[in-house]
Every structure is written in structure tokens, then in C-alpha cells.
UniProtKB/TrEMBL annotation:
This is ABC transporter substrate-binding protein. It comes from the Bacteria. The chain crosses the membrane at residues 12-31. Pfam families: NMT1. Residues 107-285 form the SsuA/THI5-like domain. The keyword Transmembrane helix applies.
Length: 348
């Protein structure tokens, strides 16, 4: 009997030793992981600060949206120039971002949809589509006010309307949700023109429909509108005559991405400022770059999109006033789904 008890005690002792040994081995392996692989992870995703807190390391790849398509796959402005010259890439590399992927979109609403769905991290677009997206609850922050003088043009078909009053009962092709949509909606209301029908068409489709006489007029942006005017299409009106209907452009970033990189706004605007200073020192080269993007002459680009129009100071009082006025119009006209606090959207 005593021999069986001793054997049972020995088995329990051996089991206890095995359990202790197993726990020790797991602890040892975990310690090895933290001291080796953990160090690699820390180097790739977080670094200890002097206070012991972790510094967030952003993902290595960032997806950037812009409006317009071209063979170089860059936008214009300081953003496009910085990407074209590699200035922005060099700045972002300092923070672990090794690749920035530009993605072109035909209009702002399409870009906003991609940002909301998570396919983009941030993007530059017209103020109207950015504000409309935010009004639907899109979790974005505006980090840059790129321009504040986007002019919408109203171009008529040949032999068609030539004055705003002539638009009564006519059909106008617009890009729904764009800054030009805001311009024409405001113009029709301001001039009290009844029975105007708006139909959504992207710019190439609208230009083709206008040339065939299938629509009476269309809205267009500066450089493309000037080309139509050169080709004999009548200019009915443009937003330069209505300062309250001028548009702007902004850069917005998803709140999800800001959680990964809280300092992104400061870093991006710093890189943009460096690119802007560079292009300001090389105006002829910059206008030649724009010519490669849109196929128009450097002279026409200089006339339509002068370097001086690119904002150097972010979110000026006048710029914020323009955004507030645009938002109010969109809300009042029920184009925006709901109102929101602009100051909570702007990340200054």
C-alpha cells in the first residue's frame, strides 16, 4: 500500500515538474520573441519615447486621390509638382512612408466614395463634394485649403442660349456634386430662372453632348471652358462675376488614417510647402509640367492656373469664410444632407 502511495506521489511530483518546465519554456520563448522579433516589430511599427509611450508608425503605403486623368498620373498644384519631383516622397520617407500611390478620379463625388469606403487614405478635391460628403456623416478632416478661386463656366451650344435669361426651360449638363454644380444652382436661383433642367454628365460626355446639340448648355472648368470658347461655343456666364459662387479645393484625410498617423496633417502640409517653394522658383518648368498633364500650352496654363493662385497660408479667414458660405448654401438649398460644425471639420 505504502509503495503504491509513493508511486502516486512521484507521478504527481513529475507532473508538477513538467508543468513548471512547460510554463518556463513558454515564458522563455515569449521573452526571446520580445527581445528579437519584438524589436523588429518595434522598429517597423512603434518606437519607445523617452517617456515610455509608443510613437505611432504609419503604414508604409499611402493612397492619395485627385481629380483628373493624365498619362503622368499626377495632379497639378503644389501637390502634383511635389510628387512629380519626388519632394513629397522624400519628406514622407522620414516617417516610414515608402510609397505614395496617386489615384485619379473623374469627379469629387467618386473620390469621396472611395475615401469613405477605405480605398483611399486622403485626397484633394473641390470644396463642394468634400462638404457634401461630410454632411452625410463621412468621417473625414480637412487639412489643407489648396485654392479659393475655382471658377465655374457656363458654356452654351452653338446657335443656342447666349444669356442667363435664355436658360428658361433649357437643359444644362452638370457634374453633380461638383463646385460647378454649386455655381450653376446658385446662379439659377440668384437670377430667378425657371424650369431649368439639370442632367449629370462627366466633362467629356457633356462636351460631346453640347457639340451634338443634345443639351443647351453645360458647366465646365477654366482651361476646358476656354478651349470651348476658342472653338466657337458661346460663354454665357462665369463665376468670376459672382464672387459668392466661386469655388475652392481642399485636401481631406480619413479619420481612420489619422488614428494611424496623428501628425499627418502637419507632415503633409510641411511637404507641400516645400514643393510650393520649389515650383515658385521654377515657373517656366512648372507651366511646362501642367502642359504635359492637360495637353494645353504653357501660356494658357499660366493664364488659367497661375502660380499665385496656389495658397501658401492654410485656412485664412477669407478661405474659411468661403467654405462656410458654400456649406450654408448647400444646406439651405437642401443639397447637403445635414448641417455640421465647420470648425470641427477643419484640422488646423
Amino acid at each position: 500500500m505504502r509503495e503504491r502511495q509513493d508511486k502516486r506521489g512521484l507521478r504527481r511530483y513529475r507532473n508538477t515538474l513538467f508543468t513548471i518546465g512547460l510554463v518556463a519554456m513558454v515564458t522563455f520563448l515569449a521573452a526571446c520573441s520580445n527581445s528579437d522579433g519584438g524589436a523588429k516589430t518595434a522598429g517597423a511599427s512603434a518606437a519607445a519615447t523617452s517617456g515610455g509611450a509608443a510613437k505611432v508608425q504609419p503604414p508604409a503605403v499611402i493612397n492619395y486621390g485627385y481629380i483628373g486623368t493624365n498619362k503622368l498620373n499626377f495632379p497639378g498644384g503644389a501637390e502634383g509638382w511635389g510628387l512629380y519631383k519626388g519632394i513629397i516622397q522624400e519628406e514622407l520617407k522620414k516617417y516610414g512612408i515608402t510609397e505614395i500611390k496617386p489615384v485619379a478620379f473623374p469627379n469629387g463625388p467618386d473620390q469621396s466614395e472611395s475615401l469613405i469606403s477605405g480605398r483611399l487614405d486622403f485626397g484633394s478635391l473641390g470644396d463642394t463634394p468634400a462638404l457634401l460628403a461630410r454632411s452625410t456623416g463621412a468621417k473625414t478632416k480637412a487639412i489643407t485649403l489648396n485654392t479659393t478661386d475655382n471658377i465655374g463656366y457656363l458654356i452654351g451650344k452653338k446657335g443656342g442660349p447666349t444669356t442667363i435669361a435664355d436658360l428658361k426651360g433649357k437643359t444644362i449638363a452638370i457634374q453633380k456634386g461638383s463646385f460647378m454644380h454649386r455655381y450653376i444652382a446658385g446662379l439659377v436661383k440668384e437670377q430667378n430662372v425657371p424650369d431649368v433642367k439639370f442632367i449629370h454628365m462627366l466633362r467629356p460626355d457633356g462636351e460631346a453632348a453640347l457639340a451634338r446639340g443634345e443639351v443647351d448648355a453645360m458647366t465646365n472648368s477654366a482651361i476646358f471652358a476656354l478651349k470651348q470658347i476658342e472653338n466657337g461655343f458661346p460663354l454665357i456666364d462665369d463665376a468670376s462675376k459672382h464672387p459668392n459662387l466661386i469655388g475652392g479645393s481642399v485636401t481631406v484625410v480619413s479619420e481612420d488614417y489619422l488614428k494611424k498617423f496623428p501628425d499627418f496633417a502637419k507632415v503633409w502640409n510641411g511637404a507641400r510647402e516645400k514643393a510650393l517653394k520649389d515650383l515658385q522658383s521654377k515657373p517656366d518648368e512648372y507651366y511646362q509640367f501642367l502642359s504635359q498633364l492637360n495637353g494645353f500650352t504653357p501660356e494658357l496654363n499660366k493664364k488659367v492656373t497661375p502660380i499665385e493662385a496656389i495658397k501658401t497660408v492654410n485656412f485664412t479667414d477669407d478661405g474659411v469664410k468661403l467654405l462656410e458660405g458654400t456649406k450654408k448654401f448647400l444646406v439651405d438649398e437642401k443639397l447637403a444632407e445635414k448641417d455640421f460644425d465647420l470648425s470641427q471639420w477643419l484640422l488646423k
